[in-house]
Design a protein that fits this description.
Helix 3 (115-121) packs antiparallel against helix 4 and helix 4 runs antiparallel to helix 5 (153-173). The protein is an alpha+beta fold. The strands form 3 sheets. Strands 6-7-8-9 form a 4-stranded antiparallel β-sheet. The protein has a 3-stranded antiparallel β-sheet with strand order 2-1-5. The relative contact order is 0.17. The protein has 2 domains: 2-66, 2-Layer Sandwich (Uridine Diphospho-n-acetylenolpyruvylglucosamine Reductase, domain 3); 74-173, Enolase-like, domain 1, CATH 3.30.390. The chain is built from 5 helices and 9 strands, in the order H-H-E-E-E-E-E-E-E-E-E-H-H-H. The protein binds flavin-adenine dinucleotide. Flavin-adenine dinucleotide (FAD) is lined by residues 1-2, 5-6, 8-10, 12-13, 18-20, 56, 61-62, 84-86.
Length: 175
């Protein structure tokens, strides 16, 4: 099922536990949309609106995803729901010369950028393990976490911090 799915289909569906939204946010991608009124481009940051809701109008299709090519290192850390593989929490990290970008899925109604984590590490080329851990503690800041039979909201927030710390550690180590 996962191998047949498309990246565009996953983004358009905006499942709160889908993996691709986290990656596309961290990669600072642009999304090209086409419809009867022509084409428009929006940043991934502005694409996810709410649970299963995106910036797509009912008569529009997602037709292209553009990912900037820059020197960078990346990591994805996920705690998956064992039966389906969907993310209970998934954290994508991209580190380039501007600092880290962190996309988090599975925690809230929509995937989000963890900007407080990013700010905490801005300007640090090789942060210490302590600095990474401190930054990761902001992973769930101002986020209304979902709770369901797979994980409580508190556990999701805990996993967001743990997976953020792990993904940051791997991404910085790979530079
Ligand atoms: C058992 C199972 C396990 C799964 N595990 C995972 C997982 O671990 N991680 C994960 O991320 N996902 C997982 N998925 C989701 C799976 O990958 C989805 O099928 C896929 O993400 C959706 O892509 P699709 O191309 O099949 O879209 P579709 O199912 O064809 O479409 C999804 C929705 O988006 C709309 N749509 C599709 N393409 C576009 C477009 N270009 N423009 C506008 N609207 C569009 C469709 O009309 C529909 O409403 C799982 C699904 C199942 C059933």
């Amino acid at each position: 099922m996962r191998n047949k799915g498309t990246i565009g289909g996953s983004l358009a569906h905006a499942d709160p536990a889908g993996d691709w939204p986290a990656a596309i946010l961290a990669l600072d991608a642009e999304i090209e949309i086409a419809g009867p009124r022509g084409r428009r481009t929006i940043k991934a940051d502005n694409f996810f609106v709410d649970l299963l809701q995106t910036a797509l109008a009912p008569d529009e299709v997602l037709c292209e995803i553009r990912v900037p090519i820059t020197p960078r290192s990346v990591a994805y850390e996920k705690t998956e729901q064992k039966a389906s593989g969907f993310a209970i929490t998934g954290v994508a990290v991209v580190v380039d010369k501007a600092g880290p970008r962190v996309g988090i899925t599975g925690v809230a109604a929509k995937a989000y950028r963890a900007k407080a984590v990013e700010r905490a590490l801005a300007g640090q080329a090789s942060p210490t393990a302590e600095a990474i851990a401190r930054a990761a503690s902001h992973a769930g800041e101002k986020v209304e976490a979902l709770g369901d039979i797979h994980a409580s909201s508190d556990f999701r927030l805990h996993l967001a911090e743990v997976n953020t710390r792990r993904a940051l550690t791997r991404a910085y180590a790979a530079r």
